Amino acid sequence: MKNRSNPQPKIPGIQSAPRTDLPVLKPFTARAAGEVDDLLFSRWLTSTPAWAWLVLVLLIVVWPGVTAAATNYTMTQAFQALWRWIPFIVKDGFFYNVIISFFAMLIGTLVGVVLGLMQISPSGFIRLPAKIITQVFRNSPWLVLLFIVLLALPFEIEIGDKIIRIPDWMKAVFGLCLPIMANISEVVRGAINSVPSGQWEASESLAYTRQQTLWQVILPQCFKRMIPPWMNWYAILTMATPLCSLLGVEELITLSRQAIEAENNRPELLVPFYGFALLIFFAYCYPIARATIALERRFAVKL
Amino acid sequence: MLEAFMEFFRQLADDHPRWNFIFFHEPRQWARIVKGLQYTLWLSVACVFLSVIIGVVGAWMQNSPSKWVRGIVQGYIQFFRNTPPFVQLLFFYFALGQFTPAVTGPDGWTEIPIISNVGWAIISLSMFAGAFNVEIFRSGIEAVPESTQEAADALGFTRLQTYKEVVLPLAFRVSLPALNNNLVNLVKTTTQAIGIAVPELLYQCVSIWNDYPSALYPTMLLLFVSFIILVGILVFGMHRWEQNARIPGYGG
Amino acid sequence: MNQVPWSDDQPIVSIKDVHKSFGDLEVLKGISMDVMKGEVVCIIGPSGSGKSTLIRCINALNDIQSGSIEVEGIEVNDKKLNKLELRKKVGMVFQQYNLFPHKTAIENVMMAPIKVLKQSPKEVEDIARNLIKKVRLEGKENSYPGELSGGQQQRVAIARSLAMNPDVMLFDEVTAALDPETVKEVLVTIKDLAEEGMTCMLVTHEMGFAKEIADHIYFTDRGVIVEHGSPATFFDNAKDERTKEFLSQIL
Fold it and tell me: CA of B25, closest CA in chain A: separation in Å?
């Protein structure tokens, strides 16, 4: 046993001993140890200082003034135009962003959990396809997946003699749920793997079957650990929904473009409208990110 | 050999009208694919390179004693991390592009902006990835214990020497996994440049299947497989790099 | 930079009424001591008494609020201190070895003379090999710190400081983080150094070792020097109550 008269300094939250007696690198969070931080996105969204957004708002307000100097389209007119269009953009535009993100998350989570559980299966036949699917969809660009799904899926299905038209946003949901399910599968796998192997061994020696161990011992412990990364992915997903506009899905960006065209394409409108888009996304994602960080703190893992 | 290859796909197209691998048997379409690949690779390489430089410089600036410098870096990071990269691309090209000067083309009439859409794509994506890199490098630098820096100090190293010889090599090894993740992400994000009409791979494939609807499925397949391979190579290469950079006693 | 001409008959390290605070907490409350060239000085005392802080102040790793520290005539408290000059004269070995993990043992030893003293790699390599042989680590030149035991790493750290050819060596509780078995190998190395005439200042808990090699022992408690003397007078005839209490707890 090491005879230390001067123990390592205590770091709040870390109860375990450093992994090596070589004091090369500080024993600290996953971030510093080189692993990818699950909550990278949420952490930085919440740590946005208020002044950064103040600057952005100021920029949006001042910009039309700058361009207005050159034309006779005044700043007030630009903001009046924006004000007129906001109800339309939000109700018929952002609403769909939220719907798409909601359903994509729902389906993605359900399938992702299944895939994650498949990835830890002892049987190679189940594990390998799950692993391949996860890696394939994790490493594909989201936009490519969207294109493929939106163009390959038929836009109407025939059931009997009824023809059901699948709206564009539904196809977008399928397109976006693919990378989400892959990433959730990784979250699940990571959470299960982070449970100490001692738990498996203890359950085994108590004659639990593998299924019982998984559902009654391991998963209840994982559940809390999975929630923050899951919420983090939801925020990322929401930020990715504007990509659908490239495929003609009616959502915030598409409608903003249409509004600008309806207002005769004045360049002074670009910054207010897109600035508004940025702000509304931020307003939606910021509380989620805050809740994520708060939950992570509450569920902090004590090793 | 090549002729037989092309003939095979022509036959396939005749037999199965929906599986027209047109880019395999028509040299012009193949040229498009190649052009798209070139643009994707060019974008990826340029953005990776620039974003790493931005990351190193930004991490250095974050340690600056001046509050203004630190504030600027923080503002930059917050803006580029909390907004969708697609919207950043649009903003750079449309909003900022308005203000770049233009030179008159060879025909004496067309106005060619100094920074093309490809240029803006590179700038926007590099700054996007650079913002993440600053944080990654900063965590790496923070992970080097002060005591090691002190030991270098006690040996008489100047601050710059300490950074170069001790802090940066160690910080780099710590940052490597997160950096790899970020770079892979960057390569995937280059597809979004289609929004400003950069003729990269996705754009070319979309043009092909718009011109030849019968080639829809094969082109999608090609697109999908290409990115899997591209990202796969990058991930594999990065993994090898991580293995080579290992130092005994650290990591598990 | 204040450099007073210095000769061998003056103290090589002269500490006069040094006060040091960390914020509101005063850690050194008026420490004075003189160390002559070739002397081996041990500083002992309970945790928090300021021993490590004092040692670090000598090497300008911490600054002092008042008082003066002179090393070979160089005033350490001077705002215009040329740290490079100081560090060439003073070598320091830390409790946590602090070797550079990405360099081999011999590279660790060679780094500073090449980069700081701008000596040629060829001559530095010879010196480095000799030093490694001296600390009895022949054969381990090309090992990385991660492959060496704690005691071996500490000895490489000693060799690393010696490569700068200092006149004073500071040891800050260098054996505190080691196994009892490996403590001995490090102590033997320090003893060799002392016998060769190196001026050494040690902060240590190893009473037996202190008794064996020290020319002078200082006992600090709560920021002041309570008592000091040669090992004989110190251990057997301690005068102050606090000293006696401390000694009875350890011996």
Answer: 22
Q: Which residue has the tokens 């110190």?
A: C234
The pLDDT confidence band at residue C158, using thresholds 50, 70 and 90, is very high
* Residue in C96, C108, C143, C148 to test binding to A, most A beta-carbons within 10 Å: C96
Q: For residue B62, what are the CA distances in angstroms to A9, A37, A42, B71, B145? A: 26, 20, 21, 8, 18
Q: What distance in Å separates the CA atoms of residue B138 and residue B144, rounded to the nearest whole number?
A: 10
Summarised one tens digit per residue, pLDDT across range C3-23 is: 667 787 888 999 999 999 888
State the average pLDDT over residues A2-14. 42
**What are the strands, taking DSSP E only, across A94-182?**
156-159, 162-165
Q: pTM for this structure?
A: 0.67
A246: chain B residues, CB-CB within 8 Å = 194-195
Between A252 and B20, whose confidence is greater?
Answer: A252
Classified as helix, coil or strand, C61 is: coil
Q: Is C239 helix (H, G, I), strand (E, B) or coil?
A: coil
Closest CA to B47 of B14, B69, B80: B80
B139: tokens are: 């965590």
Tokens of A254: 């598409």
Indicate the SS3 state at residue A276: helix
Predicted ipTM of the assembly: 0.72
Residue A211 has pLDDT above 50, yes or no: yes
Cβ-based contacts under 8 A for chains A and C: 26
Inter-residue contact B143 to A33 (CB < 8 Å): yes
Residue B31: how many CA atoms within 13 Å on its side-chain side?
Answer: 3
Q: Please, which residues bridge with residue C68 across strands?
A: C16
C-alpha–C-alpha distance, residues C226 and C234, integer Å: 11
Q: Is A88 helix (H, G, I), strand (E, B) or coil?
A: helix
Sign of CA dihedral A133, A138, A143, A144: negative
Interface of C with B in 102-121 (CB under 8 A): 102, 111-112, 115-117
Please indicate whether residue A72 or residue C46 has the higher confidence score (pLDDT): C46
Q: Which chains touch C (3 or more CB pairs under 8 A)?
A: A, B
Task: Read off the pLDDT of each residue in B3-13 and give the average, rounded to a whole number.
Answer: 83
- How many other C-beta atoms lie within 10 A of the C-beta of residue B113? 16
**Cross-chain Cβ contact C164/B148 below 8 Å:** no
- Of the pLDDT bands very low, low, confident and very high (cuts 50, 70, 90), residue A153 is confident
- Determine contact: A5 vs chain C, CB below 8 A: yes
Q: Could you write out the DSSP letters of every residue in chain B? A: -HHHHHHHHHHHHHH-TT---HHHH-HHHHHHHHHHHHHHHHHHHHHHHHHHHHHHHHHHHHT-S-HHHHHHHHHHHHHHHSS-HHHHHHIIIIIIGGGS-EEE-TTSS-EEESS-HHHHHHHHHHHHHHHHHHHHHHHHHHTS-HHHHHHHHHTT--HHHHIIIIIHHHHHHHHHHHHHHHHHHHHHHGGGGGGGT---HHHHHHHHHHH-GGGHHHHHHHHHHHHHHHHHHHHHHHHHHHHHT--TTS--
Average pLDDT along chain C: 87
Statement: residue A234 has pLDDT above 80: yes
